[in-house]
């Protein structure tokens, strides 16, 4: 082989090989991860990807999903052109159409629905993607619909609500400076590689680590203390820890006296959670609860690492989250170095140490100017706190027409299988008069749309990301869009133009800069994107031109110096101006079941304790969706590399339960819940899950865990589903084809 061929084979970049390294961002998984991506491009195609070394967040790493980037970008399942449905809903029969026809069709239908049933009859939905959100929210509100909702109806927001009900604001763990880390609860070793690395670094520095988790997760594996609780009992555990801390006199007396509201009531309530009672409820040995409480309260500084999901994926989720978060203030760890710190929310509400004008951009009109949004009657606490509609109420409102009919949907990244009672969700979707779906992939949800538009992936579009290291990256497309794909924001700008909305008016200066290109000039959507971001980033003095000059990213210039205990001067952004052990907002709605001023503990609605009759037939606790490292919701099943890492839909079952129910590793089992629905999966016997608990990953197209969960199994505070704790039964239906293979992980 000659030298050049060798260089080409080794994919060495350079003039001779024609291989160029271009910077992008992997957006396959979630925004707190999103690793820097070095794309090796030759002849307009990505031939290899690596992690960007200079990115301080991901530090050159990529996970299995990121490494399969090319299989995602060049997937057979990509939508190649705009499509018009020609068969019945769900048939999958579509015909290619032009972009002009597609956008015109969507605009005509939206205008028609607005005229006939009001703009509120159209739902603007965004699934997993994040970058387009401020733009879509603005589009919805300018069109006049309050029904802007996202996958955050099931992710992150309820956790933030828990913190905000206590403190008025979330507070992030100061991992770099802490001496004790309480992980309540997350498993970043599977879900978030940059955070995993920081936790392992902390471990090496000698930081004490406590992990709360029903499973022996890899993160629990590095803990000094593992509190292995029964799913959904977080509130009881937290209240018992609070009780130990107060009884031992380890609480911050000055903080609770001066800066907290309702401490005496909390103290009295927590006192009912004795160690014995807590052990009975949670299954965690009393001595271990006590040891963890004392370790956390006596550490020089202690930080709590929450997650967007597991605690709040329970019917008492927000209350449980409040009880856990209350320990931070109780022990004087709120807004102090090494504790949980309050910083400004930056781009896409992701704390990066700088301020933006994102909020005014996405809220061009107040809620009071629009009809009530989805979920407003059913989830009033959510509605008072969150600038979005609660999508969990979608099936109910479609079916009842109460308080008004819903008739249309424009959805960026829609997956009906992420919602509880997924089949009911799909049935509601089918009833709409008009659906447009925008997705890079031809999906099962897309088959129900009238129009499908092909979305570009992150490597085909401009991407802007801000990281907690106060680092911002602006990336240009590294390849031409696959077939006719367009970026989500271009599609939104295009729709705004067709709808004749005054979308680009930001302020006089920026409107002038845009030269009034909308609605009559030749649209330059790239310029519109940059101008909008320039406007949003302006308070911080950072411009897109500056960012473009640093393709791998740059540190935020002159970020404000971190300040601590800001509440001493400003108070807390709550109704009382104090940290609220008793929440004023929750008290307002405390006549409703499951809502109370104190962070009360309630059993999961379905559990061996709350519904013993059901438990006689459904003896196991079902948790769904604990993250697997190779999949991310519905996305990576379609990539052969990642799918090969776990080929079959499997439910995790403790070997003791295997023995109890006569199930061997690899057997086909029927997994059913009191809904009467059952799915067929393989049994994965593993010590990862405790006896009595079954864990099933969600979003498998062939075995949909969400079809097992009732649609109204929702936390009344947030509307979040109780994905992590209900009841189920397992029954062997066929022996393993390969025979028992012993215990696997
Ligand atoms: N049972 C159970 N259910 C759960 C959970 C659980 O733990 N258990 N977790 C919940 C949580 S926390 C979350 S966040 C949700 C996630 O739920 P979803 O957000 O629905 O996640 P996905 O199905 O992966 O993504 C939706 C669609 O977005 C598309 N997409 C990807 N990138 C882009 C893009 O750049 N542009 C556009 N337009 N589309 C794109 C994908 O192709 C996919 O079709 O699931 C929730 N559902
Ligand atoms: N590889 C991969 N990474 C992902 C995702 C993915 O799908 N795949 N999804 C992304 C998204 S959308 C999110 S929201 C995050 C979630 O990130 P994480 O929260 O870190 O991940 P999970 O596995 O959902 O939950 C963490 C742990 O919660 C435990 N758990 C289950 N039920 C309960 C309970 O009732 N109480 C307590 N205290 N713990 C419980 C589980 O055993 C699990 O080990 O991950 C993100 N990262
Ligand atoms: Mo999530």
Describe the structure in your own words.
There is one protein chain. The chain is an alpha/beta fold. It folds into four domains: 71 residues, Phosphorylase Kinase, domain 1; 280 residues, Rossmann fold (3-Layer(aba) Sandwich), CATH 3.40.50; 171 residues, Dimethylsulfoxide Reductase, domain 2 (3-Layer(aba) Sandwich), CATH 3.40.228; 126 residues, Barwin-like endoglucanases, CATH 2.40.40.20. It is built from 27 helices and 27 strands. Strands 5-4-17-16-15-6-7 form a seven-stranded mixed beta sheet, with helices on one face. The chain has a six-stranded mixed β-barrel with strand order 22-26-23-25-24-27. Strands 11-10-9-13 form a four-stranded parallel beta sheet, sandwiched between helices. Strand 4 and strand 5 form a beta hairpin. The chain starts with a helix and ends in an 11-residue tail after the last strand. The C terminus is likely disordered. The structure holds ligand MGD (2 copies) and molybdenum atom.
